[in-house]
């Protein structure tokens, strides 16, 4: 009877050990699955952030280029305006000199 009881206890202990091991494996699989899901989510967020930053950088570059082109156009308009003014002043001075010469 003692041998039978020892055998039952041994089988019960083995069954419990097997159950504990299966639970540990299941938990390990669950933890791994959760870790994989977190890693996948973090990767996606990083990619989204990088894409957004790239788009913002491109927009900033386009804006800067447009501002530079506008400034260059404005400078050219100023230069032409100044040139016209000087040409007009030269023309008026030449007319005055011509009128003075005729007198």
Automatic annotation (TrEMBL):
Residues 13-103 are annotated as: Disordered. It comes from the Eukaryota. Residues 16-56, 64-103 have a biased composition (Basic and acidic residues). This is Uncharacterized protein. It comes from Hemiselmis tepida. The lineage of its organism: Eukaryota, Cryptophyceae, Cryptomonadales, Hemiselmidaceae, Hemiselmis.
